[in-house]
Amino acid sequence: MVTILETELKKGIEQAIKKAKKSLAPILVSEVQKVEHIEPLSFFSAGKDKFYGERFFWKDPEEQTYLIGLGICKQIQNEQLSDRFVAVEKEWDDLIKEAIVFNGDGKRGTGPLAFGGFSFDPLKEKTSLWSQYSHSLFHLPQFLLTLVDGEAYLTTNVVCTQYDDMTVWKKVFSDRQTILSFASSSAALEMAQILKKEEVVNPDEWKDSVQKLVADLKAGQLKKVVLARELRLFFKDKVAADFVLPRLLKEQRASFTFALESNGDCFIGASPERLVKKDNGQLFSTCLAGSIARGKTKEEDEHLGETLLSDEKNLIEHHYVVEMIKAAMEKVCQQIELPTKPTLLKMRDIQHLYTPIVGEALEDSTLLQVVDSLHPTPALGGLPQREAVEKIRKIEALDRGFYGAPIGWLDYQGNGEFAVALRSALIQGSEASLFAGCGIVEDSDAESEYAETNIKFRPMLSALGGLENE
Ligand SMILES: C=C(O[C@@H]1C=C(C(=O)O)C=C[C@H]1O)C(=O)O
Ligand SMILES: [Mg+2]
């Protein structure tokens, strides 16, 4: 059992209430404590009853950073059609500016931290599918477990207003004790859901739209457009992220694993694609596009890899992404580094062409500004960017919601990381929608692109128990 002996939180809450009475604005208090190791999944599931619908989970591919949030201390959300990245950053900065923070070690990913994401395209009409998610949605958790550099930290956040008194402290203290005792007793849960039915949503229409798009690409200015589709699953009972996360973590180790609950729904996935990471002055981004299946034997796998590395159509698909990310990174960096040729990134179900980009950030470029300048890259949008997004808005039947968009975190020191929310699903009670798309270029063939999306469904399908009989 993890016990916390000394706590400055009480003092912080007293100060914050005083400050709030003076300024008439809410004041955040954040206390970080180094704790003994806590299993990330145990912590997540410790909030299953008390904080259901108010949890998030994040793990990076290097398995260096785990972030698990329980409870919503403060929500930053908006339905803005433009300037939404700036708006979130401003609201976050305003909260942080006045915050009272106790954080001895000051490790990245500890202390005040907002986790969340954005919709792919706020100008696309929202359907009931995504009614539980605002176009921009971030949570500052009440309790945050951070595993970083092999150490565990627990952050407790409280927002105090002028109307609060010290009962706030009593409540937070007792909630924290409860969570810590649950976290040390709850074991990771095994999958329990039974899949009843899979519905491929409008497959023929999707193939038709690919064919028509190819004709447009041949005739016009557009070079690449990413088209996505949906697979709807029906289960016997309600599905909880608690059952899905253990499978994702085991099966998709080289991915970002994420889950974001909102109003009863849960957006969850295991993405291989980094949009951007900011670590002090350094920026990291990834160009990922061009795909082929994994082989059944080592020889077949290597052969497929070699085929991908020299395939004209996939190299073009990839090149468009490099071209755009390189240009965007050059604008926010003093200098950038990138290899001249892509290599292979091999995931459990698929292999991709991969080009990492690293840069020295310009002093005044913030994480969300960089997200703004990158999203959507041609890995999910297309080229030219604006025209491609307009095309998707017009011809794609799917409401992408958070699929294909930035998901991740930012802390109070300007660090953070965003993945592109791929290989993902939206869980809604006993149903789930899975999403997958493909980069369509002049040389695309509708049947092969369709097959490629089927491979991209596999990570989530497997984690949800849909590949059990293969
Ligand atoms: C659109 C997806 O993936 C993207 C498209 C790829 C492609 O078309 O080759 C490869 C990686 C991703 O950038 C998806 O997984 O849904
Ligand atoms: Mg492709």
What tags apply to this protein structure?
single chain; 470 residues; alpha+beta; Anthranilate synthase; 2 domains; 21-stranded mixed beta sheet; 21 strands; globular; binds the ligand C=C(O[C@@H]1C=C(C(=O)O)C=C[C@H]1O)C(=O)O; binds magnesium ion; isochorismate synthase activity; Isochorismate synthase MenF
Give an overview of the whole structure:
- By secondary structure, the protein is an alpha+beta fold.
- It is built from eleven helices and 21 strands.
- It has a 21-stranded mixed β-sheet that branches.
- A hairpin with a 4-residue loop joins strand 18 (406-411) and strand 19 (416-420).
- Helix 2 packs across helix 4 (167-185), helix 3 (84-97) runs antiparallel to helix 9 and helix 5 (203-219) crosses helix 11 (446-463).
- The model has no long low-confidence stretch (mean pLDDT 95).
- The protein binds the ligand C=C(O[C@@H]1C=C(C(=O)O)C=C[C@H]1O)C(=O)O and magnesium ion.
- The ligand C=C(O[C@@H]1C=C(C(=O)O)C=C[C@H]1O)C(=O)O binds at residues 226, 228, 273, 288-291, 317, 352, 379-380, 422-423, 436-439, 456.
